Amino acid sequence: MTALFALATSLLWGLADFGGGLLTRRIPALTVVVVSQALAALALGAIVLATGAWTEAGPSLWYAVGAGVVGPVAMLAFYKALALGPMGVVSPLGSLGVVVPVSLGLLLGDRPGLLQFAGISLAVLGVLLAGGPELRGAPVRRRAVLLTLVAAFGFGSVMALIAEASTTVTGLLLALFVQRVTNVLVGAGALYASVRRGGRALPEDGPGAVRSALPALAFVGLADVAANGTYAIAARSGPVTVAAVLASLYPVVTALAARGVLKERLRAVQAAGAGLALVGTVLLATG
Description:
This protein has 287 residues and is mainly α.
């Protein structure tokens, strides 16, 4: 159960990152964050009302609020990094955020077996190599790396917070809704401040470009919501260390999507990294 939901998380996050990275190449990153999360909040709000999940409100929702505050900062940094550098390079570095939930899991008593420790090591190394690490180059590349590291810490913090937000399925729906509403409020405030400083809220093509991209924006927002949900279930059903590492394989999905759609060529080190990540996944799932 843990492996299944964690791998589903990596698939959903990988596709959401790919879609978000593409959208920020023609729409301001803050607008992508706000609109995609607003669409997800609307869908979740309807589900919360239909299921009566709002009756499970409690103190644990503060974890969801915390995730909602950190999330937009991480997403904005990551989307800007994806727009600056090749997705196959930027995305794997974002997986460094797995250090946050894994460290917490170990502190709280998770003790993976020998095979699982080997799987964790191989999976993390594989994801990093899947980016074909290129830390040298033009200033733009260095900026992309810095933004990605900021995003990584934020993503790891969100993973740790959302896993604590609820212990039931309906409670999780409410927590995800609260997280998305907070995302929108924080993102909208940042967008307003950006516009006041002379930034753009709309692409050069005008509001029509945003309207035409609404289906893609909805997909990004809903895939991100679903990934948070499947990760929370994975973290609750098994060791957090295993769930976090398997969920962190999403950069491999992003890199493969970039290869298939954008024709970004995988270097030898990237292919080797993807292979190591696969071996690590097998060890984690069977250890």
